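JOB MANIFEST
job_type = single_chain_structure
chain_count = 1
residues = 425
[input]
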Amino acid sequence: MARVIFQNANLLDGDSAARPNATVVVSGQRIESVSFGPGAPPARPDDRVVDVAGRTLMPGLVCSHYHSAYRNLGSDGVRMPVGMNSPVGLQGIYGAHNMKLALDCGFTGAVSAGSANGIDAALKMALDEGVIVGPRLVACGRDVSTTGHSQDRIPYYWQSTYSGHFSRADGADGFRRAVREEVRNGAEMIKLFVTGGHGVATPAEQLEMTPEELRAAIEAAHAHGARIRGHIANGEVIRMACEMGMDIIDHGDGLDERGIELLVEKDIGFCPSLLFPHLTAELRGGEVAERIQASIARDTEVFHKANDAGVRMLAGDDYGVAFMPHGMYADELVYYVENAGFSALDVIRWATKNGGELLGFGKDIGTIAAGKYADLLVVAGDPSRDIKVLKDQANLHAIMKDGVLYKDTLDRAAASQKPMSAAAA
């Protein structure tokens, strides 16, 4: 089997500081070996040997809060239920387009946080059949929550029976049925709107389901082999959901010390998604912006404590709304470093190691080591020193997923530049 041998790489393995002079050998779908300095494995006649010339070799990125078919805002400036403002077929086309865009941006994995009309399940089938290209996908179904919850905004006088965007459920048995139905329809991840807050119409203090309903949903998801995530912006409810076994807490406004302890103890993923409120504040201005920024400042301080405590932090946000179009995925990483004060290395870990483990392949994705799947990027520059290099697709000289190069400008890029040292990268 022909191999690809990356030589003279600045290796950013997803879990530790960059190391120069690395050689990484890829054979088939997996990484065969990683070595440093002289003594690299000899090349075989049919191997492709690439002098990376000091550029950074790193794991592919993972968006852990992804909406494949989110497109825009409603005409009144409020996000309409996806599928209501575009035909279902067109939503699927949006999804296929956005999947390719994510891969082009260096995101070789995506974990969905909600999808209308079974679009994620269809996209996953198309990926498996080779009909479209895109990142590895953990498919989610419709949002599940109670009658009248924050996303249940179809006016009663429409007398509409539409249910493509969300699944209404009431009572513990109702939630069990709704979760089972989503799994039957291809969902690997269940999304609940557990509280208001964080950009939805209802306040964070409002619990959108009873504790019995929440527990039933979590138990039903796990009983049927699915994972479950929740929109939660309330410290007390975060603690309750952690105790019940929620797999991912989204947003997490109001997180407190006890919540941090539970996130660590139960190894629950935490996806803060702070770019959305930050951009909302910039858009709104005035007193509203001041309140949002005060909330962000308070939560950011707690999120630093969570990161330092070892919480499995994740990257991802609500791309697809008008002021956060698909394609700006790396802007979130830049925000966390330049606005929120996290180290670039930590944020890269959220988007590689932590996100990779969430994809469902154990620990076989998200870091660079022998035996792992070959989901790799070759980047002009060192993102651990300047996270902004990830915003420009031109800086991505190679994008490899599952050992296949979906973007390959390696030879052309090497010919057009002088070799770089790791310090200059």
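[summary]
Residues 49 and 233 are 50 Å apart (CA to CA).
The chain is about 35% helix and 20% strand.
exit_status = 0
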